[in-house]
Amino acid sequence: MTVPARIGLFGGSFNPPHLAHLALARLALTHLTLDEVRWLPAGAPWQKPAAALAPAALRRDMVTALIAGEPGMVLDERELHRQGPSYTLDTVHEFQSEQPDAELCLIIGQDQYARLNTWHGARELLRRVKLAVAAREGQPVAPPAAWADVSHTAVVLPLPRTDISATEIRARCAAGATASSLAALVGLPVASLLEQHALYRGQLRA
Ligand code: ATP
């Protein structure tokens, strides 16, 4: 009898991907004893403004650079190739038809958990995946206020506080930060790509 695969689904705009993402994915892999963590860059992150979104190919390349050589980390491009908004529920349906026995675990930070009730098909998502949530920037893990009466469980991932956000990195790029100064937030391979492609250097609207 084969043991069902345990797959972590880690979605985001990854605009750009950074070291807090990597810390979260590494922790999820070990804490939840996953076989792999699928990094799923969103093609069209429907809940985030599109103005400052780097091209999909570059976000993919930055994720590739960030996870290079990392055991258990796998880039999954499916949402980049899908037309229309990137709904996690569609991705879950795809995984469940490809690997019906796999156990799926959705890995998110508290900012996303707090608004999970607004996600497309959120209640169905709860029935189909296990949730794993990390506190973020001082915000402890807590369900959406609107879900006071919605029974569900979430595993808390004990991520050490890491105050890194893509928003801050984009602001630093816009202010002309060099690759060496960005490396502490994104690692040198991603920092080099940010510099090489002069990403987020223009007027930032979001
Ligand atoms: P932005 O600043 O543009 O909103 P972000 O830094 O939140 O971006 P995303 O790609 O939106 O990056 O995040 C993907 C996932 O990683 C989300 O579930 C988010 O909550 C989580 N995450 C990102 N940064 C952190 C962090 N510093 N601590 C914990 N979780 C994080």
Automatic annotation (TrEMBL):
It comes from Vitreoscilla filiformis. Signal peptide: none annotated. The lineage of its organism: Bacteria, Pseudomonadati, Pseudomonadota, Betaproteobacteria, Neisseriales. InterPro entries: Cyt_trans-like, NadD/NMNAT, Rossmann-like_a/b/a_fold. Gene3D superfamilies: HUPs (3.40.50.620). This is Probable nicotinate-nucleotide adenylyltransferase. Pathway: Cofactor biosynthesis; NAD(+) biosynthesis; deamido-NAD(+) from nicotinate D-ribonucleotide: step 1/1. Residues 9-172 form the Cytidyltransferase-like domain. Catalyzes the reversible adenylation of nicotinate mononucleotide (NaMN) to nicotinic acid adenine dinucleotide (NaAD). Keywords: ATP-binding, NAD, Nucleotide-binding, Nucleotidyltransferase, Pyridine nucleotide biosynthesis, Transferase. It comes from the Bacteria.
